[in-house]
Amino acid sequence: QVPDALAKEGPVSPSYDWFQTDSLVTIVIYTKQKDVNLDSVIVDHQYDSFRAETIIKDYSYLIHIELSHAIQEDFSVRVVANVGKIEIVLKKKENTSWECLGHPLENHNSLIPKKDTGLYYRKCQLISKEDATYDTKLFCLMLPPSTHLQVPIGQHVYLKLTITGTEIVKPYTPVSDSLLSEFKEPVIPNNKYIYFLIKIYPAGLFTPELDHLQIGDFVSVSNPEGNFKIAQFQELEDLFLLAAGTGFTPMVKILNYALTNISSLRKVKLMFFNKTEDDIIWRSQLEKLAFKDKRFDVQFVLSQPTSEWNGKKGCISPGLLSEFLKRSLDNSKVLICICGPAPFTEQGMRMLHYLNFSKDEIHAFTA
Ligand code: FAD
Ligand code: NAD
Fold first, then answer.
1. Cα–Cα distance, 249 to 202 (Å, whole number)
2. I want to staple 73 with a disulfide (CB 3.0 to 4.6 A). Which of 145, 183, 217, 222 is the partner?
């Protein structure tokens, strides 16, 4: 059922079809959209349910069925972007002919507002945990083989753990495993791993439990959410990032993406606010990146520095911002991304408006 408002001006509902060979079953989703990519579809096969959620603007098109026959754990997903076609290739467990794909489950073959789909989770295994600072760790989680999920840049997921019988859910922003990926051994691109930088609060509800997990334990990971759009980078010339504490996390993928993919970019500047030097996440990686890529600059601002610190001090202020946010050309196209504790982001937004940056030039990451 397509809601009226969407039927008038939104996307048309996708449709699907399927075909088989002796060993494979291919499900084809015709999205009727041009801008689909591998981020646009999330596929899970767990318990008796096969679920493929295709994201189209603020809507989800669901394929949700109990398959008629058993399939192998892994499958592949292909996108033919220019015709908006998504193909999911399943491997049959037995080479028999299927008479039907399966039985429809809830919301199968329907286009529904994304907010009404609810959060869908799959269990991911903890692969590694490394210190990034004294209280912040880089966690690596592995998706199950029966999931296809890529978290788009600037989006977050929810992690869920059952703590003394109660399910607790908190949002976290996936990062890349490093800011300097090309310094590493070449590896086959593998989207099975999701990395997080997470600060452990000793008196917190969720993070101490997460920290107590052993390698091999499981955490549930939701589908991505968030309203950052990669289109905001189009023709971008100056990118300014204002991050406080773990508000640095969305900036990681933004930095990697912008420096490798946006050819119009002249300058990328990060102003990173922390309490002390020891709180700065990935400081040496940031300094190396600034050394390696002349378009990138980083400035650290400390709110509780020791007397030896001779860098910038204090909290976010109009003075600091007006000095920092210098366009490389008078009318260059800018984007300012801001993320940190809620009061930091709120104050920052007010200062940016006061400094005459328009709404379109600012993206605030909030809850
Ligand atoms: P909480 O129980 O929420 O406590 C946090 C701190 O506040 C503790 O020090 C606690 O003692 C104190 N506290 C709790 N209640 C009170 C109170 N009533 N009065 C005074 N103090 C109190 N965090 C990351 O580390 N990495 C990320 O990538 C990340 N991404 C996020 C993305 C989004 C969209 C949002 C909204 C948040 C993100 N966060 C991220 C923050 C994360 O969701 C959690 O809020 C954080 O991990 C704290 O969780 P907790 O349950 O351990 O702590
Ligand atoms: P923190 O307490 O270590 O503070 C880091 C810096 O933030 C401080 O040095 C200061 O400059 C600034 N700051 C802190 N409190 C402030 C206040 N009241 N007013 C003005 N400036 C202030 O930070 P943390 O413990 O790393 O917390 C990071 C925050 O970022 C968390 O609240 C987390 O929820 C949020 N976060 C949000 C997202 C998102 O996408 N919305 C993503 C990641 C983190």
1. 20
2. 145
State the Cα–Cα distance between residues 176 and 197, nearest whole angstrom: 9
Q: Which H/E stretch holds residue 32? A: none
At residue 329, the 3 state secondary structure works out as coil
Residues making up the chain, counted from first to last: 367
Same domain, 178 and 210: yes
Asked if residue 204 and residue 182 are part of one domain, the reply reads yes
Residues 298 and 321 in one domain: yes
- Do residue 49 and residue 97 come from a single domain? yes
Taking CB atoms and a 6 Å cutoff, what residues make up the pocket around ligand 2?
156, 173, 199, 244-247, 249-250, 273-275, 279, 303, 315-316, 339-341, 343-344, 347, 365-367
The DSSP output letter for 330 is: T
Ligand 1, atom nearest to 249 Cα: 28
Q: Residue 153: which CATH number?
A: 2.40.30.10
Choose the final residue of a domain: 222, 250, 273: 222
Q: What is the pLDDT of residues 171-180, one digit of tens each?
A: 999 999 999 8
| DSSP-derived pairing of the beta strands 174-175 and 193-199 | antiparallel
Q: Is 311 left (phi over 0), alpha (psi -120 to 50) or beta?
A: beta
The DSSP line for 252-264 is: HHHHHHHHHH-TT
Its sign, for the CA torsion 152, 156, 157, 159, is positive
Other Cβ atoms less than 10 A from the Cβ of 192: the count is: 14
Do residues 218 and 302 share a domain? no
The residues facing 195 across adjacent strands are 140, 175
Same domain (yes/no): 351, 255: yes
CATH classification at residue 339: 3.40.50.80
How much is the pLDDT for 183? 46
Q: How many angstroms separate the CA atoms of 160 and 202, rounded?
A: 18
Write the ipTM: 0.97
Total number of domains constituting the chain: 3
Query: How remote is the C-alpha of 149 from its chain's centroid?
Result: 10
pLDDT tens digits for range 15-25: 999 999 999 99
- Is residue 295 domain-shared with residue 354, that is, in the same domain? yes
Give residue ranges with CB within 6 A of ligand 1: 156, 170-173, 196-199, 201, 203-207, 246, 249, 367
